[in-house]
Amino acid sequence: MDIKARVQHINPYARPRDVERIANKTGNIYEALVIVSERAKQLNMEIKEELTRKLREFEETYDTIEEIQENKEQIEISRFYERIPNPTVIALEEFLEDKLSYKYAEEEDNKDNY
Description:
Helix content: 55-70%
Number of domains: 1
Low-confidence stretches: none
Mean pLDDT: 83
Order of helices and strands: HHHHHH
Strand content: under 5%
Radius of gyration: 19 Å
Number of strands: 0
């Protein structure tokens, strides 16, 4: 699913959040923030790759700088990506809506030892 479909219902502006609600998901606010942070990193990479893919469609080779023309579609795509919520806002929303699955590295290490 592309980013456009995932972020339509998300308020793009930072707003106060109930810290206890966030902490209750994992039992520890710091663990919750690490999970959200890691997801935000993933989202940032996905958004960057998606934008790059879409902008590559407009790439053409030019001999001189004077030949570069502005493309209205390209500008609209860029503006859309500027307006989408910050990856951290998206990740926190996914976390609070229980759309993220996560596991602890310690559990994986312990499974390997048995």
